[in-house]
Every structure is written in C-alpha cells, then in structure tokens.
Specification:
Strand order of the largest sheet: 7-8-9-6-10
Distance between the termini: 37 Å
Helix content: 55-70%
Structural class: alpha/beta
Length: 914
C-alpha cells in the first residue's frame, strides 16, 4: 500500500486516490514540516519554531509535539508510513517520489540534465502538473509562509524555463494564449515579456510585439523608475531590425559578423595600378596578407582602401573590422592598441562581462575570435608599426593599413606589402575633377581647368574641395574661381604648416573665405573641439549658437567638403582640415569652457539615469551658452556615453590643460556606472589617476577621498588588490580627518570587498560592520541594505549562520521594498549558501534557483557561475552526483564563453573529482 503526500496545494495524504483524514490545521502543519525534511531528522525545537513561530506557544511545547506525533502515527502507521523518534528529534521515512514537492524537484533537475529540448520539456511539464494550488494551502506560520513564497518563485522560474524550451521548439502559436494572460498578470516580469514578444513576432505580429515592449517600458518607468534590462532591449532592437535568427525554430548559436567598413567612396576614379597591386597581394588565402598603404596626408589612402574593400566584399563573408587609429590627429594622442582591441571585441559580439581584465588576454581573445575566419581588418591612419602589431591576427586574414609614414618595420618583420601612393597623374586628376563637375564644363575652359588642377597638385582631398566650391556655383565660369584661388595662393606661404599642407592651405583658405561669416566662425571653433568628432548639441555649446543655426552652418561646411557627417548628427574633419581650422581659430577660453561643461553636465545626466541611487555629486551650473542634454531612459544614456566615450577622455585631458580641475575628476565620476557595466577597468584606472591628481589640486578633501575610492575600486577590477587597498586606505584616512561620514562608510564597504577578493572574511567583516553601522546612522537606506547583505555573507563564510541569516533576511526585505533586483539576487544567493551549510539542502536549491532566475533576468551571466558552482556542491552533498556534474558543466560553459580561464580550471577540477 503506497501513500502519496501532497504539499503543493492542500496538505494531504492519499492511498489509492482516497484521502486519509489528517485532522486539524496544527497537525497538518507538523506533517508538512516532516515531509519538507523527508528522511531527515527534525529536532523538537525546529518543530516548535516552524509550527508555532509567531503564535503563542503551548504551555508544554515538547508535550504538544509528542501529542502531534501520536496523532499522526495513528493515521499513517496503518498505511505503512513510519515516524521514528531519534535522539535529536523525529524522522518521517518515505520514498521522496511519493511526496509531490520532492518529485517536483527531481523532475525539474532531470529536465535540466536531459540534454535534449523535447525530453526536457516533457519532464518540466510533468513537474508543473504536480501543482494543485498554493503550497501548504490553509496553513499560516511564518516558516511555511516564507517557504511558500520561495516555492512559488521556483515554480515561476521553471515555467519561464519551460517556455524558453518550447519557443526553441517552435511552439509559438500554441504558447501565445497562455503567455498573453500570464504576462498580463505579471506586467513587470521582463523575461516573460521577452517570451511573449518572441512568440508574437514568430506568429507574424511584430507590431504587437513592439507595442508590448513599449507597454512594459512605460510600466517599469512609472512603477520602478527603471528601464528595461539589457536582454529585453536587445530583443526589441532585433525585432526592429527583423533579425532572421529570431524566426529559426532552434535558437542558433551564431557568430556575430561585423560590417564596420566606411561607406563606399562616391565618384572614385583612377588608381587602377594600385587597385591591381592590392588584388595581387590578396591571391594567397593561407597567410596573413598585409598591405601597408603609405603617402602624404590628403593623398587618398583611406579613399583607395575603402574602394578596394567594397569591391571585394565577397572575399570576406565572415565580416570586416575597421578602426581609425588617429595616428596624426591634431586634437590628441593616437589611439592605443588596447582601445582598438576593445572596440573590435565589442564589434565581434563579446559581452562586456566576457571581456578579460588583462589587456594581453583581450588581445589573445581577439586573435582567437578572428582565427580561421575570412575577414578583412582595416587599420586606418596608423601612427607607426608598434601601434599596428598588436592588432594583427594570428592566422590567415587580410589586413589593410594606411599611414603617412612608411611602415618599414611592418614590411621587414611581418611581410607586409608596401604600397606608397603618389599624387594622381594629370589624367587621373582631370578625370576626378570631371567626375565632380562634368567633362563639358572642363572642356569649355581647358586652360583654366588645368590651372585649377595645378593648384591641387594631384591631391584628391584638394580636388574634392575645389570641386565642392565650384559645384556651389554651377553657373560661374571656372576662371572666376581660378582668379580667387590665385589671389589666395599669393597671400599664403604654403610651407608654413609643413609638407602635409603644401598646396592645401591655399585651397582651404580659398574655400573658407567663400563661407558666410558665421559658418567660417563655426569652422574655426571646430578646430578647437576635443575628441575625434562632434555631435550637433556639443557644437551648439562650443559656439554658443542655437542648434538650428549650427546645423545650417554644418550643412554649408559639409557642402564645401570641409566636414563630413559620418553618422546622423555627428561630424568630423579630415585631420589636415582640422589642423587648418585650428590655425584660423583664435584661442577662446570661454568656448573651451562651454564645450567641457557640455560634456561633463551631459555625462552627469547620463550617470544619474544609469545609477539614480549612487553617491551624490554637486557639479554646479554650466557656463553661459552651454546647453547640456538629458535622457529619458537607460538606453539613450548608454548610447550617448558609448558614442562620446573617446571624446570624454579628450575632454578630461583638455580640462586638465585648462586648469579646470573639478571638471577633470567629475568626468571620472560620470563614467563610473558605464565602466562597471562594461568591465572596462583599464580605462577606469587611467581616468581616475587623472582624477586623483586633479582633486589634489582643488584642496577639496571630500573630492580627494572620493577620487581615491574610485581609483581603488578600478585597481581591484584589474586584480591589483594591494594597490587598491593602498588607495582605499588613503581615502578612509582623508574621510576620517575631514569628518566625512558617508565617505568613511563607502571606503569601509569597498575595503571589505577587497578583503573578500583576497578570501579573508574576518578582515572583510572588520570593515563591513562599521560600513553598515554608518549607513544606518546616516539613513542611507539602499546602502544600508547592501551593508546587511555584505555583513551577512561574511558571517556565513565564518560559520556564524544564525547572525548571517538575520542580516540577509533584513537585506532581502529592503531589496524587494526598493526594487533593487541586483541586491535581491545577491542576498537570495547568500541565503542559499546559509541553507546549504545548515543542512537544509532542498531549501538551498530553491533559493539558488530563484537567484539564478534573477541574474538571468538582469543579464548578469558573469555572476551566474558562482551560483551554479554552489548548486553543484549542494547536489553533491545530497549524493546527486549526476546533477552536481550538470550544474558544474553549465558553469564551465559560461566560464569558457566568458574566457575566464582561472575559474574554468577550478570547475574542471570539481568535475574531475566527481
């Protein structure tokens, strides 16, 4: 005779489908506690705590427990179920498969380990069918209430997991009705929202999918004050782009194919022999083919390389990478190879969390990702061989390099084929000008056309500017333009600016003198702007002009070929044009202050959107004429920071040169969340070193402490723990001397994190405890919650489980109250660790499952590894070695995808030991 027990609904026992009368609620609660801990000894104290908890205790609690056992034995023993008295408590012996809760857990684990979607779906569906309602229905004790909430969260996570599998199986139409009603009841569940969007899209309803995204986005903003998570935003973008991968039945694990080439040159002409030389170099598919294109500025090196690349796109089906290395940028230093590698990793689809910390490891990852792929790598405007070498692939690929210098080292050491551009021949120059103006116009005035071309000296850049000037007045005789250019040429000494401007300064000056006064002023101001390009709002603040007027001026400059709009609303100059613009501009401290303030205040607005609860900062008001912009959501803020990041680094350098020390360290503050989310600790260290130096110039003790805290945090991200502790120790001393209590709290909190990295929980707790106390005293509620979970974690690691649980439970309540999902995930994981180490393994698995669901929804796959590792340990403790191995293999897959060699090695050792 088999007794089957139900906990996932009303607590009951059945034999052959007929119920056994258990009795009153208290008795059912005792049975529920015994069944949750089936085959484990439950102490009398635990039974009293879990059954009576917040209710008045019986006069004789132990006698009440004994009476309950007598009553339960009376109804269960005849059915063959035994409750045994042990020295430390009571044990109910039962086959776990006869208790719906334990059968549910086993089926879920088997489903995850099945390895095949059809089998996994069947097992998860069977598990979910076991639910008959809320767990322990009708019973109300604090312990059962807490466990009920955890189990409901577990069931929700399993349902989401099942839907993911069913979507991979192509069951979009069948899922749609239930998904719609489920999403309506859980409007803030972003993972569920994404599943519904995917189903709608695959049912031919993309408009409904996009509408649902907007509803969720609005609801999140109104109720939680947050934006959609990165996974949901990415799905929205893929639907907008009609990504074909979304319509596949089985979710593909595709490799990102980058397409970064500049636009195909318009009106390209000539250079036939050089194009042929590049064709010849490409002939060998089994080697790294490097073509180094050299020549003076304005000679058309990028023009030629881009033309050739577009002609041979079919030879590079695996993608094309492009970077402007800014080797001769008049506004700043050449781009570092490390920065270029990081940009390539982004283009190749590497998630920020998967980017290694070490620069050499990043370069190795880049080479691994391009190995064996038919790709073109276009390295434009290189300064020298040293800048290029770290960007060369390790295996067969085609590399185009342009530079004003002859890269003899690249030729000698790496077998590059040198291709040095000379000026266009007379015939090629004539043909290029005719392409712009028409052969008839040149034939009408052949002598004048020849004079114009002579002034251009065979430089494509000069010809394009002359053509743009002539094109604005198609009815003017070319002789009028030639007279103007001749006069200008007489006024200028072409050698003053060096060989790169031979024959160009006259052309530039002639073109600029034809501009309206305001447009010419804007042109000169652009020569002062920091960074590689400029957006329309920044240009408006630089010039102190309304956006509409600046846009009109930029349009005129674009028509004159003096600026190019390489992306909507973003403008850049050829570096020789920019050099000339800088010559024309007068030093204007007010303009420089306005543009610095624009970037600092706009970046500040972006940071407040990304981290509204972060440390406060007072940055004052922007300079008169500066009009910063704001952001509606995290997506817009992140996109702006990504586009402007190189310019923000240039702004920090400019601010330091202008003695604007506050703005220097403010730039670092505005980039904190951006750095953390990207894992970009290399740039963070550089920025905050400058920030510390600037803060020291201000004499502001709070700024000095804050800058050192952020520098220490960035050093920690690079694994430089000793240096991190030194900076954080300095920050703490400065805050103590200044009586800065918030500064002391944050310093203690960060120092505790460093000691955690060094596996010294006792030292960590020595700093986490005063951090928590200060956060409490200061009323910093969210930081107080983080303090609770930090203290609780270290107490748990030291074996102080009761204290740890109390702190983590307090943190969990506060996290949920404030909608802090990252904190909730961290705290639930800690509670799972505590449950594991106090022998409550089933509870630990439920908590870990909830933590994994939260981390998945947040897109924090980097943090899933540690939780999965702990899941494996819990299964191992239960003797479920296959399930432990499955969890560790999943963690190993994530480590390998994220290129975390050290963590992967540790997990391989766990798998090897079994």
């Amino acid at each position: 005779m088999t007794v089957r027990f139900r906990l996932l609904g009303d607590v009951e026992a059945r034999v052959h489908g007929s119920p056994i009368a258990i009795g009153y609620a208290q008795l059912r609660a005792v049975l529920a506690v015994l069944l949750v801990e089936a085959n484990q000894v439950v102490s009398v104290d635990q039974l009293v705590d879990r059954v009576w908890s917040d209710r008045p205790l019986p006069r004789k609690p132990r006698a009440a427990v004994q009476h309950s056992m007598t009553m339960l034995r009376g109804v269960l023993t005849p059915a063959g179920v035994t409750i045994t008295r042990r020295s430390t408590g009571y044990q109910l012996t039962v086959d776990p498969d006869n208790v719906d809760l334990h059968r549910f857990r086993r089926l879920v684990e088997d489903g995850r380990a099945a390895g095949e979607d059809g089998r996994s779906a069947a097992l998860l569906e069977e598990a979910l069918r076991l639910w008959g309602g809320e767990p322990f229905a009708g019973l109300d004790t604090a312990w059962l209430d807490s466990l009920r909430a955890t189990l409901i969260g577990h069931r929700h996570a399993v349902r989401l997991e099942l839907v993911d599998i069913q979507l991979r199986l192509g069951l979009h139409a069948a899922l749609l009705p239930d998904l719609s009603s489920w999403a309506a009841g859980n409007p803030l569940d972003e993972r569920l929202a994404g599943q519904l969007m995917l189903a709608l899209y695959n049912c031919g309803r993309p408009a409904d999918a996009l509408e649902h995204y907007q509803e969720v986005r609005k609801r999140l903003a109104e109720e939680l004050g947050t934006d959609p998570s990165p996974p949901l935003r990415q799905l929205h973008e893929r639907i907008l782009a009609t990504d074909p991968a979304l319509t596949a039945l089985v979710r593909p694990h595709t490799t990102v194919v980058p397409h970064q080439l500049p636009a195909r040159p318009r009106q390209f002409t000539g250079r036939s022999s050089e194009l042929a030389d590049l064709d010849t170099a490409l002939g060998d598919d089994d080697a790294v083919v490097i073509s180094a294109i050299g020549g003076l500025g304005g000679m058309g090196k990028t023009w030629l390389a881009a033309q050739w690349a577009h002609q041979h796109l079919d030879r590079f089906p695996d993608g094309q990478l492009y970077v402007n290395l800014r080797g001769f940028d008049p506004g700043g230093q050449p781009m570092s190879a490390a920065t270029a590698v990081r940009g390539f990793l982004d283009a190749l689809g590497v998630a920020p969390s998967a980017v290694p910390v070490d620069a050499d490891a990043q370069a190795g990852l880049y080479r691994s990702l391009v190995a064996g792929r038919k790709m073109l790598i276009f390295l434009d405007n290189a300064a020298d061989t040293a800048q290029v070498v770290p960007l060369l692939p390790g295996g067969p690929a085609c590399v185009l390099v342009t530079s004003r210098r002859q890269l003899t080292g690249l030729v000698a050491a790496h077998g590059a084929r040198a291709l040095n551009l000379d000026r266009l021949s007379d015939e090629e120059a004539h043909r290029l000008l005719a392409t712009h103006l028409g052969e008839d116009r040149l034939a009408a005035e052949p002598v004048v056309a020849a004079e114009l071309l002579a002034c251009c000296a065979g430089l494509p850049l000069a010809i394009s500017i002359v053509a743009a000037r002539a094109g604005t007045h198609p009815g003017f005789p070319l002789s009028v333009l030639a007279d103007e250019l001749r006069e200008q040429n007489d006024l200028l000494d072409a050698l003053d600016a060096g060989e790169d401007l031979v024959s160009l300064r006259a052309v530039f000056s002639w073109s600029c003198n034809a501009l309206p006064v305001e447009t010419a002023t804007v042109f000169g101001a652009l020569g002062l702007a920091p960074g590689t390009d400029i957006g329309l709002p920044a240009a408006a603040s630089l010039t102190a002009l309304p956006v509409a007027r600046v846009r009109a001026c930029l349009r005129q400059l674009e028509q004159a070929n003096l600026v190019g709009q390489h992306a909507p609303g973003r403008y850049r100059m050829h570096d020789l044009v920019r050099l000339y613009a800088g010559e024309r501009a007068h030093h204007d401290p007010a303009a420089l202050r306005r543009v610095v303030d624009f970037y600092v205040h706009t970046a500040f607005a972006a940071e407040r959107v990304l981290d509204p609860l972060g440390e406060p900062l007072a940055i004052g008001v922007p300079a008169p004429g500066c009009v910063p912009i704001g952001f509606e959501n995290e997506t817009a803020a992140t996109e702006w920071l990504t586009a402007e990041f190189p310019n923000l680094l240039a702004v920090q350098e400019l601010a330091a040169g202008q003695g604007l020390h506050d703005q220097v360290w403010h730039v670092g503050w505005t980039l904190n969340t951006y750095f953390r989310r990207r894992g970009d600790y290399h740039d963070a260290v550089v920025v905050w070193r400058a920030g510390v130096a600037a803060a020291d110039h201000t004499g502001d003790r709070a700024a000095q402490a804050q800058a050192r805290r952020h520098l220490g945090d960035a050093c920690s991200g690079l694994g430089r723990q000793s240096e991190a502790l030194r900076h954080l120790g300095d920050a703490l001393r400065i805050s103590e001397q200044a009586g800065d209590l918030p500064g002391q709290a944050h310093a203690h909190h960060l120092i505790a994190s460093i000691w955690e990295d060094l596996d010294d929980d006792r030292r960590a707790l020595e700093h986490a405890t005063p951090a928590l106390r200060l956060f409490q005293d200061l009323g910093m509620t969210v930081w107080e919650a983080w303090g609770y979970t930090q203290v609780g974690w270290h107490q748990a690691r030291l074996g102080l489980y009761d204290q740890a649980r109390a702190h983590c439970e307090a943190a969990l309540v506060m996290a949920r109250r404030h909608g802090e999902r990252e904190l909730e995930a961290t705290t639930v994981d800690s509670l799972g660790y505590i449950a594991h180490h106090t022998g409550h393994h089933a509870e630990a698995l439920d908590l870990y499952e909830l933590a994994l669901g939260l981390l998945h929804d947040l897109g924090y796959d980097h943090h899933e590894v540690a939780t999965l590792e702990r899941v494996g340990h819990t299964h191992h403790a239960l003797g479920h070695h296959d399930r432990a191995a499955a969890a560790w293999r999943q963690a190993l897959d994530l480590c390998e995808a994220q290129h975390r060699a050290e963590d992967a090695g540790r997990i391989r050792q766990l798998l090897a030991r079994g």
